[in-house]
Amino acid sequence: xxxxxxxxxxxxxxxxxxxxxxxxxxxxxxxxxxxxxxxxxxxxxxxxxxxxxxxxxxxxxxxxxxxxxxxxxxxxxxxxxxxxxxxxxxxxxxxxxxxxxxxxxxxxxxxxxxxxxxxxxxxx
Length: 124
Fold this sequence. Notes:
It is built from 4 helices and 4 strands; from the N terminus they run H-E-E-H-H-H-E-E.
């Protein structure tokens, strides 16, 4: 039921973040992003509602092969796990690679509540 809205919400968040660089936010670009994404969300919602009213959702699900259905579920779960790892600061951006794991032990991850001082890190 909420699945069709998850993608546009992610796009909206990414566009808002992209409109703010180095502490300065471009309000006009943020509002353009907002109007674009809300329009897209409305159109996708109307399309999903139309599919539901004519009971075409079952037909769409029957068209997908079982391995693709499983892959979609795995992809959504991996994406959510990645966002969670970033929120908990288990992975971070790197200068030499796409991203890297936070080091284990002293000064890194030691999985105790008192080890993380930042409340927004997910460990406080």
